[in-house]
Amino acid sequence: MFKTVLTIFRGGVAAAEEELQDRTALVVLDQQMRDAAAAVDRSKRTLALAIAGDAQEGRRLDATNARIADLEVRATAALEGGREDLAREAAQAIANLEAERDAAMTARTLFATEITRLKRHVANAEARIAELDRGRRLARASEAVRSLRRSGIEAARPYESTLPEAEATLKRLRERQMEIQAADDALFEIDTASGPVVVAEKLAEQGFGPRMKSTADDVLARLKAKRPPAA
């Protein structure tokens, strides 16, 4: 028994956890996308630094090559002028500059590799974020539609009436009104057929008491009485 209760409790906890995850999925997704966008921004800053570093090494390389070319011209002139000592000094300076040149070239190669990698990474991440954003909009739209359906079509609360209930009430009201109208019509027919007015008219027709309605003879006699006497 205890094992069963424990299993039920664990199942309830798991169900509650899944329900919580479902309710907060969009909130979690929003935060995850913000984190991903922040990571992409950091990658972009790193890419910008790499591009700036490569440009700096490029300028250093150009300056070094220019100094090497200038010293080579001067060292050659010193040799031609019989100043091997100056030419040797120039040669040492050129050797040092060539070491700097090689280092700058190596640095630019490293920068180029890193720039290519970062560009690929940023482009891929931005494409994935754009796809996630489209999916998020669709998820929000679906959630909004589900919410509208739940609020507009779901079963009514215990204290609320539903549309079918209102229709049934109107139907009963109309049926009751038709019953009342039919009863009123029947009573009117009964009153018309056997009421005191009808009885009085029947008696008048038999000569008992004054007539209830004027006849053509009555109207004609009244008109003759109003006619002026002949001259």
Dominant shape: rod-shaped
Which second-level CATH architecture of the domain at 11-150 applies? Orthogonal Bundle
Give the helix/strand class: mainly alpha
CATH classification, class level of the domain at 11-150 = Mainly Alpha
The main sheet comes to: none
How many DSSP E strands?
Answer: 0
Protein name: Phage shock protein A (PspA) family protein
Coiled coil: 83-135
Family: Belongs to the PspA/Vipp/IM30 family.
InterPro entries: PspA_VIPP1
Q: Can you walk through the features of this model?
A:
Pfam families: PspA_IM30. The chain is mainly α and 231 residues long. It has a domain at 11-150: Helix Hairpins, CATH 1.10.287. Helices cover 87% and strands 0% of the residues. It has six helices and no strands. It has helices at residues 2-23, 25-80, 84-153, 163-194, 196-205, 216-226. Helix 2 (25-80) runs antiparallel to helix 3 (84-153) and helix 4 runs parallel beside helix 5. The longest helix has 70 residues, at 84-153. It is rod-shaped and about 175 Å long. It starts with a helix and ends in a 5-residue tail after the last helix.
Overview features:
single chain; 6 helices; mainly alpha; 231 residues; 87% helix; Helix Hairpins
Short summary of the structure?
The protein is mainly alpha-helical and 231 residues long. The protein has helices at 2-23, 25-80, 84-153, 163-194, 196-205, 216-226.
Secondary structure layout:
Blueprint (H helix, E strand, L loop, with lengths): L1 H22 L1 H56 L3 H70 L9 H32 L1 H10 L10 H11 L5
Helix pairs in contact: 2-3, 4-5
